[in-house]
Design goal:
alpha+beta; Alpha-Beta Plaits; four-stranded antiparallel sheet; 32% helix; 27% strand; elongated
């Protein structure tokens, strides 16, 4: 015996509506992400490639760089066009799991 749930009386998808209420971000929007890692060759390129993978419109000219006080680490701020919570979550996971990345904010 199977039971089916009737569609909402107002015709709205309540799951989609609830997800929008839970988010403080309106999509699409420009969303900055700070990534920190050791100041080594290839670090900025790796971050840039991941940004482009999740946002094909990513403009590398908007990257901001900041050296740590001791000069051993580099902070890279990328600003992507965020189109969904799923996109942001996937990008954060990809950045966080990259071997060159120490912290993602």
């Amino acid at each position: 015996m199977t039971s089916s749930t009737p569609p909402p009386a107002n015709g709205l998808d309540t799951q989609a509506t609830d997800q929008r209420k839970d988010s403080l971000i309106e999509y699409p929007s420009q969303f900055p992400i700070k990534v920190m890692g050791l100041k080594v060759d290839g670090f900025v390129h790796a971050v840039t490639e991941l940004a482009r993978k999740f946002d094909p419109t990513f403009d590398a000219g908007t990257i901001e760089l900041r050296d740590s006080r001791g000069g051993n680490y580099l902070g890279v701020t990328i600003t992507i066009t965020a189109t969904s919570r799923e996109q942001l979550d996937d990008l954060y996971r990809a950045l966080s799991s990259h071997p060159m990345v120490k912290v993602v904010l």
